[in-house]
Amino acid sequence: MTLQLDPAAQNLLFRDAHTANTFTDEPVTEEQVRAVYDLVKYAPTAYNQQPLRVVLVRTPESRERLVGHMTANNAPKTAAAPLVAILAADNEFHEELPDQFPVFPEAKDLVFGERPVREQSATLNAALQIGYFILGVRAAGLAAGPMTGFDAAGVEKDFFPDGDHSVLVVVNIGKPGENASYPRGPRLDYDEVFAAV
Fold first, then answer.
1. pLDDT at residue 162 tops 80
2. pTM of the prediction?
3. Burial letters for 130-167: b for 16+ Cβ neighbours within 10 Å, e otherwise?
4. Element (H, E) at 66
5. What is the SS3 string spanning 167-180?
6. Number of neighbours of residue 197 by Cβ within 10 angstroms
7. 37: three-class secondary structure by DSSP
């Protein structure tokens, strides 16, 4: 069976895409980011909760603050990328549920009334949205450099001081530069991943 998606699009989104470590100086525009979001907002989430929140780090002062929280390997990449996004889960997403999930507005309190339940659900569902976000960046002809090597508590304190967000990933975004990625590592075979029962 063949895939419906054009082979060139398959390659752009999957086979030819790599995590980028270097970028050109070409800026990432607000228009590009909005186009990316126009695709990624359709990611599936439980109860249509949409907990992902994104901070675009655009000012030099904010960039310097963020770089200070990155690990030694990730700091120079973050300092040089055309655009950096901080992706977090909103642990108070349930406040939006009566509008986002009108078929069961009571879910706000009946399902997500307890903070630990919200945090677990927000993390899982924001992670689904993050996967879509990376694909959306690729669909825009850009490269993504997602990183988890940073002081999460420090980033949360600096960029989400309300205490209601959990920072999950920092993503560098732009056109890939010279030697932007490492050679692709091996992937598991189908039979190593899938089982039929």
1. yes
2. 0.95
3. bebbbbbbbbbebbbbbbeebeeeebbebbbeeebbbb
4. helix 60-67
5. EEEEEEEECECCCC
6. 2
7. helix
